[in-house]
Known about the structure:
The protein is mainly α. The protein is built from 5 helices and 2 strands. It has 2 domains: 40 residues; 104 residues, Cytochrome c-like domain (Cytochrome Bc1 Complex, Chain D, domain 2), CATH 1.10.760. The chain is 55% helix and 3% strand.
Amino acid sequence: MTERITKSMAKNIYYGGGTFALMIFIALSFDTVHQIPKRSNQQNMTASVVAGKKLWEANDCVGCHTLIGEGAYYAPELMNVFQRRGGGDEGAFKAYMQGWMAAQPLDTPNRRKMPQFHLTDKEVNNLADFLIWTSKVNANEWPPTIEG
């Protein structure tokens, strides 16, 4: 008895393995599509959150900061800045953001400086709402530390 893979056996392995891999891919895609609405916090997306996201993009905040691990690593991760600087209190966080944004750039030697964007109070509140909304997205406990 020879122990060779025949052409017919190879064809069955190819088609069977390919079909199995395709079925796994479809099942995982289906599961992902069904979990996104629960994990994305999209039910709490307001006009202010959308405006804050547009400000985030227009001012290229991702050029320095990361958000949910995406972006540059020049400045801190901002997904948990709501808990880190506002303690989970929206009023306190918005007041912090107003003060922080107005004080930029800080005159601290040997530290990176954030530019002054000259945002209005409403724009800073929109940005704060976007960061609050982002902090409530289920990202599997990302970032791993409170300091980002």
